[in-house]
Amino acid sequence: MANAEPLSSREIRSTVSSGGTLELSIATVSVPEPAPDEIVVRVEASPINPSDLGLLFGPADMRTAKASGTPDDPVITADIPSGLMKMVEARLDQSLPVGNEGAGVVVRAGSSDAAQALLGKTVAMIGGAMYAQYRTLKPAFILELLEGTTPEEGASCFVNPLTALGMVETMKAEGHTALVHTAAASNLGQMLQKLCIEEGVPLVNVVRKAEQAELLRQLGATYVCNSSDPTFMDDLTDALAATGATLGFDATGGGELAGRLLSCMEAAANRVAGEYSRYGSTTHKQVYIYGGLDRTPTVLHRNFGMAWGLGGWLLTPFLQKIGHEAGQALRRRVAEGVKTTFASQYTERVSLAQSLSLDAIGVYGKQATGEKYLINPSL
Questions:
Q1: Secondary structure class of 85 (helix, strand, coil)
Q2: Against a cut of 0.90, is the pTM above it?
Q3: Residue 105 — pLDDT band, cuts 50, 70, 90?
Q4: What are phi and psi of 196, to 5 degrees?
Q5: d(CA 160, CA 156)
C-alpha cells in the first residue's frame, strides 16, 4: 500500500571532473516507494571511516580545498594532481553518493513479510550511500539491533566489528595462533584487543604514541610496542617471540612498517631455530595490508628469509569466502556485543552540511586516532 506523503532526501555527493577537480556537495533526491522486498530507513548515524575517504576525496589534494555555497548547502572543491587522474577514470563526471555504513529507524516497508516485520525497528545497515537522510535497501543488507540499542550505538556495526572478527577468523583458518596489528589504538584496534581477550588470542599491538599505548593497556593489553621508541624493533621482536605471532594486519600500507613486522617475526623465529639456514627460518610469516594510512610506497628490506607472504585483505571478499551462514553468525555476535566488545567512540557529531566544512575536513581527513566523526543526517 502506498504511503501518503512522498519523501525527499538530502545526501552528500562526490564528483571528480574530467578537468581535474573534486567537488563535494549536497543533493536533494526523491525517495520512491519501496518495492515489496525493500525498506526505507531514516538515517540517524553514519561514521566517517578511513574506507569512506577514498570515495569522498578521491586522489584530491585536500590542502587545496576551497569552500563556497551557503551554510546549508556548502560546496567544497579541491584540485587533483594531473598524475593521479588515471586512477579515477572510471568515475569521471559522475555524482556519487558516499558512506559505507550507518544506522537508523525503518519508516517505510514494502509488502513482503520480511520487510513489514522491520517497520519501526532500529537497524544497522551497509551498502553505500549512507550520508543521506533516507536510505532504501533490501533486508539482507541490514542488521536488526537488539531492543534498547540506539542508532549511534549501532552506526559502526559492520566495517570495524566484522573486520576485527575477520582477522581472528583468518588467523584460525590459516593455522596461526597469535596476531600483530598496527594503528592499534583506533576504534578497530580497541575492538580487536577486547575480542582477543575474550577469545584467548595473544595480540601484539603497534602504536605511535605513549598515550595510545596507555589506552590499550587500560583495556587489558599485555603487548604494546611504540614505533616511535628507539627500542621498537627489539621490543617488537620480544613480543613476537613471547606470543608466537606469525600473522600481521597492517593498516598503514606504505612505508617500512609491514617489512619490519616480517623482519621481527623472522628474528623471533630464529631464537628457537635448531640450526642456521641461509634461507632463513622455515616458519611461514604473513602480513596482510588492509588499509592505506601511509600513501607512500611499501618498502621491504629482504632480511626475513624465504618463508613469508605479503598480501591484501578486505572485509567484503572475506565475507564472500566464508559464506552467508557464517557471515550471519558474525553479525549476530556484533549485535550482542555492540555496547561492549564492539562499542565505538566518536569525538564529534555533525550534520551533513557541517561535515562539509573546511574545519571538519581538516580534522577527520587526517585519519588520526581518537578523532572519529559521526554524521547525523537528521540534524
A1: helix
A2: no
A3: very high
A4: -65, -35
A5: 7
Q: Whats the size of the chain, residue-wise?
A: 379
The single-letter DSSP state of residue 139 is G
The sign of the dihedral angle between the CA atoms of 105, 107, 109, 114 is: positive
CA distance 272 to 267: 9
Type of residue found at 125: M
User: How would you classify residue 340: left for phi > 0, otherwise alpha for psi between -120 and 50, otherwise beta?
Assistant: alpha
Count the alpha carbons within 13 Å of 25 in the hemisphere toward its beta carbon: 16
Say yes or no to pLDDT of 1 above 50: no
Concatenated DSSP letters of 185-241 = TSHHHHHHHHHHHHHT--EEEEESSHHHHHHHHHTT-SEEEETTSTTHHHHHHHHHH
Residues 348 and 373 sit within 8 Å (Cβ to Cβ)? yes
Mean pLDDT, residues 52-62 taken together: 95
Of 142, 128, 125, the closest CA to residue 96 belongs to 128
Segment 184-211 shows an average pLDDT of: 97
